[in-house]
Amino acid sequence: MPPPLERTYAPEWVETTARQNGLDRMGVRPSLREYIPELWKRRTFIRVLAISKAQAKNQNTYLGQVWALLTPILNAFVYILIFGFILQVGRAGIENTIAFIVVGVFMFRFFEMSLTAGSKAIRTNMNLVRSVHFPRAVLPIAGVAAELTTLAPALVVMCVIAYFSGLLPNEGAVPLAWRWLLLVPAVLLLWCFCTGVSFIMARVVAQTPDIDNLIPFGARILMYASGVIFSIDHFVGKFSWGWVMEYQPVAVYLSLARSSILNEPAYPLDPVMWLVGLGWAAVFLVGGFLYFWQGEETYGRN
Fold first, then answer.
1. d(CA 65, CA 151)
2. Coiled coil where (predicted)?
3. Which of 97, 128, 199, 236 could serve as a FRET partner for 169 with CA atoms 20 to 30 Å apart?
């Protein structure tokens, strides 16, 4: 004889049956002990999603993925022309203006695009968030990974431009040296930092969409506050608060990249700067991940 209807569909019976069949409730934040392994299981999906996002950019243009290289090159050319040759801002305390600005523009663009990718991680994938059960952290991670995929060939172009700029008259030499290898850990630290920032922006914009409109202005302020086109130490180092700009995260990673490639007396290899960069990466990656995880159950409800 079948059990009574009210007993068959009691909440306790439904929950037990669902768990026995591997089903989970939607919109419930799992514990970190469950969340992190689930995220690791989807590492292949993250890689495929990141590659597809990178390949989808500029697919409707004639030059396609070439724009991933042309955009930072053109940006660097504009800044070199205006600030380096016309205003000669970059020459203050810098021996090779071209290489200095090129490295700054290429590295900052990666941060800027990662910031944008994080802000759109949840908002532009709302249908996926509402229909499929998976750790939402997959989305901001894949967004930054897609930008890293685009950055890889751009770094080669950046290094080539920096090296040949040292052969021009009136520009400081950029010799090949072992320290060029340090660009790899510098980029990895920047990647970890950008992933942490992406976590934060994904949750903030998902809960308050209006903030997305303010991101371009914040990025522009950070560009000038991080010394992308001029030496922070030369212009603000004499002020008592100059160290704030020098040791803020974005400026730190620009300094690490420049000290790895350029032969600038103003940017020597500094162990303290590397420790600061490691600290910023750890703080933002762990803190950003926890902040994003705490809002897991809210994504897709608005």
1. 12
2. none
3. 236
Residue 20: which pLDDT band, with cuts at 50, 70 and 90? low
pLDDT digits (tens, 9 = 90+) for 47-71: 999 988 887 776 666 666 677 778 8
Of the two residues 187 and 81, the one the predictor is more confident about is 187
User: What backbone phi and psi angles, to 5 degrees, belong to 299?
Assistant: -70, 130
Determine which of 102-111, 155-164, 240-249 has the lowest per-residue pLDDT on average. 240-249
- pTM for the full model? 0.86
Smallest CA-to-CA distance from 254 within 264, 4, 42 is with: 264
Token pair for 280: 């910023």
* Whole-Å CA distances, 139 to 121, 167, 212: 5, 43, 17
Which of 53-67, 112-126, 275-289 has maximum average pLDDT? 275-289
pLDDT tens-digit map of 224-249? 888 888 887 766 666 666 677 889 99
Tokens (6 digits) for 174: 């950029």
